[in-house]
Structure formats: structure tokens, C-alpha cells
Write a structure and sequence with these properties.
Blueprint: H1 9-22, H2 34-38, H3 49-57, H4 68-71, H5 77-81, H6 88-100, H7 114-119, H8 122-132
The protein binds iron/sulfur cluster (SF4) (2 copies).
One iron/sulfur cluster (SF4) binds at residues 29-35, 50, 53, 78, 82-84, 86, 88.
């Protein structure tokens, strides 16, 4: 759940980094919740897309411990509906980039069962490794 933070240098730096990487003017978000209402995978998320935006606005780095930033599928449903024309998926992508630059891998090929590797479409695997590994 997003919390109220007192802005300090660290949280301001984090906010600026996500803004720069995403290219989005995150402060335009007015927390209307439209993105969350239309997200097709919100049931799998631990925080909603609008909560993710709020945590970034507050410079709360705990947003990088959430499942939501990894689960956003860049489907752009929220982007076409957002009254502020914000792209939540670009913000999620920026968060993933920050985490992956710390040599963090979200998935490990050695931990995927061989049967699954045989059955999963190659294009899905390549896409997942591009998106979720450093
Ligand atoms: S739809 Fe846009 S303005 Fe509304 S909460 Fe989501 S990102 Fe913010
Ligand atoms: S782009 Fe991400 S946050 Fe937005 S609707 Fe699609 S999955 Fe949900």
C-alpha cells in the first residue's frame, strides 16, 4: 500500500531517475484509478497500476519490491484510457531497467523445467529473457 513519505534527497533522486528513464511526466497523475480499473491482469498484481504511479511520485523505492512492475505486460490498455495520457507501462519498464542494471535476474533458465522449455513458444522465451534478465 503506498504510504506517505517525507521527500528527501534519496527519494527525489529515485523519482527523477524513473521520470528520466520513462520519459513520462509522472506528476500529472491525479490518481483517478482509470488505469487500475481497466488493467487485464490486476488480479495477479500486488499493487494496482495507480498505486505504482503514486509510490513513484512519492519517491518510494519499495515499489521495486512489488510484483506489479514485473507483471505489467505493456498491453497499453491503461495508456489509451488515461485522461492525462500517461503510459504506466513505460514507468514499469523504467523500474525494471533500474533493477536489472543491478545485475538482478527475475527469471533463471536453469530453474525452468525442461518440459516447459520444450513446450513454451520460443518467441515468448526470448521476449521474457530480454525483458526480465540483466
Ligand atoms: S489513469 Fe492516468 S491519471 Fe489516472 S491513475 Fe492511472 S496513470 Fe494516473
Ligand atoms: S500496460 Fe500494464 S498496467 Fe497498463 S493495463 Fe496493460 S498490463 Fe495493466
Amino acid at each position: 500500500m503506498p504510504k506517505k513519505l517525507l521527500l528527501n534527497d534519496k527519494s527525489v533522486d529515485f523519482f527523477k531517475k524513473v521520470s528520466e528513464l520513462s520519459g513520462e511526466v509522472i506528476t500529472l497523475c491525479d490518481q483517478c484509478g482509470t488505469c487500475s480499473g481497466g488493467c487485464p491482469i490486476i488480479d495477479e498484481m500486488d499493487i494496482s497500476p495507480s498505486q505504482l504511479m503514486r509510490m513513484v511520485m512519492l519517491g518510494d523505492e519499495e515499489v521495486m519490491d512489488t510484483k506489479t512492475m514485473w507483471l505489467c505486460a505493456t498491453c497499453n490498455t491503461c495508456t489509451v484510457r488515461c485522461p492525462r495520457e500517461l503510459d504506466v507501462s513505460k514507468v514499469a519498464e523504467a523500474l525494471r531497467q533500474i533493477k536489472l542494471r543491478q545485475s538482478f535476474d527475475k527469471i533463471n533458465i536453469d530453474k525452468i523445467p525442461k518440459e516447459d522449455l520444450k513446450e513454451l513458444p520460443q518467441i515468448a522465451l526470448v521476449g521474457a529473457f530480454r525483458r526480465l534478465t540483466s
